[in-house]
Design goal:
about 200 residues, about 65% helix, mainly alpha, 10 helices, extended
């Protein structure tokens, strides 16, 4: 029996809906363990949503502990920043959306020393570097073919250090224990500050 054009369209729509639903469900399952950290990272944005999801402050505390920051001071300064956000100008709100890094830099440079939120700035610095660190470490594991398996799960600190050192062959051949130099990873600061996200 021949399938009518309308019936075919309905079946394709149904398949498309099933695929999209399963894809979204799959993403929800995969991202669920990390969403608290995304919300914790979002807290450096003074224009972030007013409601803070459950479990977010626990993730902030975990990040603070990992980077030797004072959780109590970071939380206090985040809350103060969020309270002060009602006084942000339209230009400042736009800059937060377009380039949050530049907003932080300009705010830091324009604030007197006693008005600077040093704990929040330290926390923000961690948040700004986390995606870069994640990509770097991910690429190192890919280079060394350490995909998700039992061996990767059991890597100790010494093994990870060895993987990192093999990234730069000339340095490894000269001195395997040499730490990364400051100029090994260079970032064009001006380009980062000039960048704008469209929103």
């Amino acid at each position: 029996q021949a399938v009518g054009k309308d019936d075919l369209v309905k079946e394709m729509d149904k398949l498309g809906h099933i695929f999209a639903t399963k894809l979204v469900d799959s993403f929800d399952v995969r991202f669920a363990p990390y969403m608290g950290y995304y919300h914790a990272m979002e807290l450096i944005d003074p224009t972030a949503p007013a409601s803070i999801p459950d479990g977010t402050w626990e993730r902030v505390e975990d990040i603070c502990n990992r980077y030797n920051l004072s959780y109590a001071n970071v939380k206090s300064e985040i809350c103060r920043m969020r309270d002060d956000a009602v006084d942000l100008s339209l230009q400042e709100i736009t800059m937060c959306k377009a380039n949050l890094l530049k907003f932080y830099r300009d705010k830091y440079l324009s604030s007197s020393e006693e008005r600077r939120c040093i704990h929040l700035n330290s926390y923000a610095r961690v948040i700004f570097q986390l995606p870069f660190e994640t990509v770097l470490i991910g690429s190192l594991f890919s280079i060394m073919n350490y995909n998700k398996d039992k061996k990767r799960a059991r890597l100790n600190d010494k093994s990870v250090e060895s993987v990192i050192h093999t990234r730069d062959i000339p340095k490894v051949t000269e001195n395997v224990a040499a730490p990364f130099a400051q100029n090994d990873l260079s970032i064009d600061l001006q380009r980062a500050l000039d960048h704008r996200l469209k929103w």
